[in-house]
Structures are given as C-alpha cells and as structure tokens.
Amino acid sequence: MNKHIYKLFFWLLCISWVATACDDDDNTGVSYEYVTEEGSSNFVLKGYGHESFTYGDNVLKPFDLSSPIYIENTNLSGRAYRYAEVRAARLDEVKEVPAEGYEDLAPIGENRLYVARYSDMYKDVYIKLRVVQVTGSEVTLEYALMKEVIVPNDNANLAEGDDASVTRIEMPHRNRANAYAPHYVTVGEAEVLNLAIEWNDPMKHAQWVAFTFDKVTGWDNGVGRADKTIPDFEWPEDELLPEAMRVGEDSHKNDGFDRGHLCASEDRQYLQKANIQTFYYSNMSPQMQSFNGGIWAKLEKLVQTWGYSVSTGGFDNVYVGIFRI
Questions:
Q1: How far, in Å, CA of 106 to CA of 33, rounded?
Q2: CB 183 within 8 A of CB 231
Q3: Whose CA is closest to 281, among 227, 219, 321, 325?
Q4: Domain residue ranges of the chain, discontinuous segments joined by +
Q5: Model-level pTM?
Q6: Phi, psi of 182 (to 5 degrees)
Q7: Of 106, 132, 181, 224, which one is least surrounded by beta carbons within 10 A?
Q8: Mean of the pLDDT values across residues 105-122?
Q9: CA 311, CA 59: separation in Å to the nearest integer?
Q10: What's the topology of domain 165-323?
Q11: Residue 28 clears pLDDT 60, i.e. is over it
C-alpha cells in the first residue's frame, strides 16, 4: 500500500473519531445539557405530535402528585396543571414564582422553560420544567421542585375515629348533628368505599350521598339491579344508622311517590354487593314518577357517561355529591 493510501485511511479515522465524539444520543451532533440545577431530575415523555396519543400512555407524576403531566399533541398538558413560560436558559436561573401568565397548555420546544403550577384542594405546588430535547415522538424534560403552598380549606372534614373516609375529596362539609354512614365492599383483598351518606334524621332523608367512579368503581360489569336479579329481594334498611333513625318500606308504602335512588343502581355496576347498597332506604328520595323517569333519569345517564369513561381512558376520577337543599 503506498503512502497516499495510508494518508487517506488516517484522515478517514480522524473524521470518524471527531464525528463520534460530537454525536449525542440521537446522532445529530448536538450536545444537550440535561442537568442545569443540582438535584433536578430527567424524564422522557412520549407522544409528541400524535393526536391519538392519550395521557394514559405515558405520563409524568412529579413528586408523587396525584395528577400527571402528559403530552397533548405538541403541548405539555395536565388537568391539575397550568404553565407560565419563563425567559431563562437554566433551571437554576429561575428564583421567583411568576405571579401571572399561566396557561392550560405549554407549547413544546427545545430549551423552553416553564413554571408549572399544580393545584388541588389542599395545596399549590410549583415546579420548574425545561424541555431538554425533542427526538421523534419523545420529549426529554428536566424538572425540579420550587415550593409548596398549603391552601387553607374551611370545608375540609376531620377524620371520625378510625375511619378517614369523610376526608376524601368527594365528601361535602359535614354537619356533626347528622349521622354519617360510610358503606364499604371488599374487592379482591381491598376494602373499597362504595358510597357514603349523611343522614338528616329530623327530615328522615339523606342530607347528602357521595360516591366516586375510580379505577375500581368506574367499571360497568353489568351486575344489573339487585331487585331484578336476586329472587325475593327486599329493599334493606341501613344498618349503619342508629336503629331509631332507620326508615324502611313502611315509610314509603302507598305514598304515591317513586323510591328514587340518589346513588343510582346503574352507578354501582362493578360488584353485586355494591349494587345492593344502592337499595338502602337511606339512599332513597320520594320522587314523582314524571321527575324520577324524566329529568332525573337524564341527569343520572349523563353522570354515568362521565363516570364510566374512567375505565375507557376518559376522566381519571369522577366525584359525585347529591345534596338535599
């Protein structure tokens, strides 16, 4: 081999080495800065640019928050989040929480930096969020916690004894003069809150009934109505109420009204025992048939459409509270 061929081979090796040294993960020759604040984290979200990509496919739940950040087409989204863009190149340059400018969506672009505000009933959490790079459908993020602000909530309930169900998000503010009856069922090995009732004994009527469609209760397994599927079924009294407060068939016999469900039978189709609990007389309200079979039935159907979307990629949870006013 002559010396000219050796020189050509040497230069090819040098060019190859330089290209390899400059290349990053995506082989574009661009170097990305993944960490711009000590202690920050990285996460790769998928679905950029895909209209059919849903939030359940790939989500980020920073700092164990209950609601996720996800990609909606070409934006960062998230039902509990709003985003304010910040003119900065690094997370450690962002020292103050923006007072305004928050939007529901954050357009994705490399090196764009946002403060994301997560809000629930109890707190606001502020997160610094930087788009590191976009590669195909993948978006690499860098994020760090800014601060958490506790939000006073005068309507929040305190736990009652060993049962903390009344502190859940679907529960209205308790009137301690009324009785409280949380009804559970067992699903697998877990105790699941099926529905809860606050009973106004002087009025012989529920003050409110509260329940949730979630990852367990938000499934329509077609168990049907207990009074149609169980032979000789008798509508039960609510044994969680003090005996002197209970109402039964005698309270609703020949009064000219329908026994109108508050939590509907169709709302609890994930388990037969859960459906049986909807037939407690504490869950009944005297209703004219035209109302029970008319506008009330339409409202129930709408709630069920929302509720059962939990099992089909719709809402995360649907919280329902029905009040006596």
A1: 20
A2: no
A3: 227
A4: 27-150, 165-323
A5: 0.62
A6: -90, 125
A7: 224
A8: 95
A9: 17
A10: Extracellular Endonuclease; Chain A (3.40.570)
A11: no
